[in-house]
Amino acid sequence: MTQPAPTRNPKRNSPLAWVVAALAALLIDAAAVWGAIRIVEFRLDTAAPVESVPTSTPRPTSTPSPTPTVVDERVPAECTGLYSEGMTRSLRAEGLDLGRRLSADALYGGTGDAELRALLDASTVLSCDWLDAEGGADSGIRSAVAVVGDAEQAAAIDRIRAMKLTRLDQLGGQRFFVGSVDAEGRAFGESHFFREGLWFATHWYGHGPMGYSADMVDTVFR
């Protein structure tokens, strides 16, 4: 026996029903999109930055140098006393100078690695920046001299070794360095020199003069 065909509800196909269904779908989609945006914002706000020796030069917002809490009589009070006259002339001939206002586009001072920078910031007694006319936007040498105990030095060297920098015995101390070229074809690198409780950390980009780290060490220990 043939079953009778079900009768259709005329309200189901009415224009009003279609409009209500469409609005409900839009509200559901909007809620999903808003939820996804909030998730992304939360991740961006809470995710810890991961940094190491960079394969391309980052451009972070600069932060002020910490106030020194340790004093070492071997370290000059001013940056002008950290370099020989010859090195000062050489750097100025390349268009770099001390005392220029730091650009927001300048690279980190001392190191581009977040973990190593935390160790450096905690013990820095002198920070010196040689910057181009744009405040280090394209070229600069940013150095820090820190006073470190045995434990702090060991922690810094452990991190530097993990970063796979090249090690060299030089001028009565240990030097670790690395150099590369970023995506824009600009040379950059880092140098970390340890001797008798002092740490000379340098992050350079655009111009890295030969003998720069050695000049600081010679000037301090002469």
Topology:
Blueprint: H1 15-46, H2 85-93, H3 114-121, E1 124-131, E2 140-147, H4 150-162, E3 166-170, E4 173-181, E5 187-195, E6 198-205, H5 212-221
Antiparallel strand pairs: 1-2, 2-6, 3-4, 4-5, 5-6
Helix pairs in contact: 3-4
Work out the strand percent.
15-25%
Helix/strand class: alpha+beta
| Count of individual domains | 2
How many strand segments? 6
The CATH homologous superfamily of the largest domain is named PknH-like extracellular domain
The largest beta-sheet arranges its strands as: 1-2-6-5-4-3
Distance between the terminal alpha carbons, to the nearest Å?
Answer: 113 Å
- What is the number of helices? 5
Biggest β-sheet strands, sense, barrel: 6 strands, antiparallel
- What is the C-alpha radius of gyration, as a whole number of Å? 29 Å
Output the CATH class name of the largest domain. Answer: Alpha Beta
- What letter string, H or E per element, gives the SSE order? HHHEEHEEEEH
Mean pLDDT: 78
So, CATH architecture of the largest domain? 3-Layer(aba) Sandwich
How would you classify the quaternary structure?
single chain
Q: Ranges with pLDDT <50 over ≥5 residues?
A: 7-12, 25-68
- Report the principal-axis shape: globular
Topology-level CATH name of the largest domain: Protein Transport Mog1p, Chain A
Instruction: Work out the helicity level.
Output: 25-40%
